[in-house]
Amino acid sequence: MQMGVSKNELRGMSRLAVLSLALLFGGCASVSKVATGDAVVGERMTLKLDTAWNQFGAAMTNNIPTWTVEGVTVDALQFYVGIKDGQRLAETSSAEKSQKPLIFKSGMQPADVVSLYEAMLTRDGSSFQLEKLEPAEFLGGTGFRFEYSLNRKVDDVPMRGLAYGAVRKGELFVIHYSAPRLVFFPRYVGRVEGLVRSAQLRS
């Protein structure tokens, strides 16, 4: 794989950095610190953090708990906790009303969940390529893990993402991470994998 950074990627990452700073300091988003130690997400999922994260307010992230290191427009760690049968994975904007609703069904197989994520991530015209889908330990039992590449249309930045998921008692639980494919994804993917290994559901 080519490890150099293209001019387009450099320009895209520069725009991302500027936008993140504007959001952080321009009063457009509320940001709080998630400290090291034990954390609870969505009142159902517990995690152990070796390093701190920044958490963006619900208004900016469609009520999906979202953490970041560099800024939510750069890297984003999202938690889908207890998505019930018939519940939307994401709300549809007015510009997307003609698109198929992103609804989870409890009988979905891992490939179906991946297709749901693909539909969500490409609503804006971005291009998605599944790289890997395999069984994985998650939340104390068998789940699945997938990796993908995405060319984000809004700024033409090549992205990389991974997610761990499982269906427990008819509910979907997913930890999803995405970041620019060069520099940021390899920098933080190890941190994300460690956090996923610590994830448990409250009894």
From TrEMBL:
One of its GO terms (molecular function) is acyl-CoA dehydrogenase activity. It comes from the Bacteria. PROSITE patterns: ACYL_COA_DH_2, PROKAR_LIPOPROTEIN. InterPro entries: Acyl-CoA_DH_CS (IPR006089). This is Lipoprotein. It comes from Roseateles asaccharophilus.
